[in-house]
Amino acid sequence: MVAGREGCKIPIYELNEDLVFPPAEHAEPDGLLALGGDLSVERLVLAYRSGLFPWYNEGEPVLWWSPDPRLVLRPSELTISRSLGKTLRQQRFRYSLNREFEAVVTACSEVPRPGQDGTWIQTEMIRAYTTLHEAGYAHSLEVYQDEVLVAGLYGVALGQCFFGESMFTRVDDASKCGFVCLVNFLHVQGVRMIDCQVHTEHLARFGATMVPREAFLAELKELIVDDSPCDGWKDVDSLTVEGAV
User: What does residue 150 show for φ and ψ, rounded to 5 degrees?
Assistant: First the structure.
C-alpha cells in the first residue's frame, strides 16, 4: 500500500509495488501527492484516471502531482485569435498523428524553455511514454513544413479526456497551428475535456480556464468509464484544420 512521510503536516505518500494511489485530494498545496512507484503502463493509466501525472527531474524518485486548481480546455470553447486564423488559412503546415511519436517526445525534451535549467523529460520518461504509445494510450501530433518536422505535441487519451503533456516548436506559429488541429480532431472524436495541467498564458489565450481540483476529479469519473485505449486514433494518418469542426 502507501505510507505517509513522518513529520509532514500534510503527508507525502511513498508508493511501493502495489498498484494503488492515495486520493488526489490529499495532495499538498503545491499539488505534490506521492513519490516512488514506477512508470509502467498500468500505473500511468491509473494515475491519469485518478487525476495525477508524473513530473520529476533526473536523479529524483518519481513524483506524482495533482495541482489545485487545474487548467482545462473544452474543445467546444477553443478560441483562435484573428492573426492565428490568418496563418491557418495560409496552409503553411502539414499535420499528422502518431507518425513520429518518439521524435516528438525527444524534441520536447531538447527545446530550451524560459526559466528552466534542463528538462523533466529524461530518458526514463521518454522510454515510458513510448511504451504507453505502443500500448495505444499516448499519442502525438506532428507539424511539418516542407517535409521537415518543425513542431509537435503529445499526450494521453482516456475516455472522453485528453491529457496534454508537452509541445515544442522550431518555427513561429507551428505549434499553435498544430494545437488547433489537434483540438479540432479531439472535438470530432467526442473529447469533452483537455487537461492542460498548470496555468500558462499561452494556453489561456486558447480559452483554457482554471478548474478546482474537486470539480476536475468529479468530471474525470464521468468522462472515463474504462481503461481501454481510445479507438478514434486508429487508422488516422493525417489531419487538416479546415472542416474539422
Answer: -115, -10
> Alpha-carbon distance 234 to 237, whole Å?
8
185-241 pLDDT per residue, tens: 999 999 999 999 999 999 999 999 999 999 999 999 999 999 999 988 877 777 877
Other CB atoms within 10 A of residue 160 CB = 19
The residue written with cell numbers 491519469 in the block is 48
Nearest one of 129, 154, 157 to 142, comparing CA atoms:
154
pTM across the whole model: 0.91
User: Strand order of the sheet with strand 70-73?
Assistant: 209-211, 70-73, 193-197, 161-169, 148-158, 138-145, 94-97, 238-239
Phi (first) and psi of residue 229, to 5 degrees? -60, 150
CA quadruple 108, 76, 95, 88: dihedral sign: negative
Strand, helix or coil at 4?
A: strand
Q: How far apart are CA 67 and CA 79, in angstroms?
A: 24
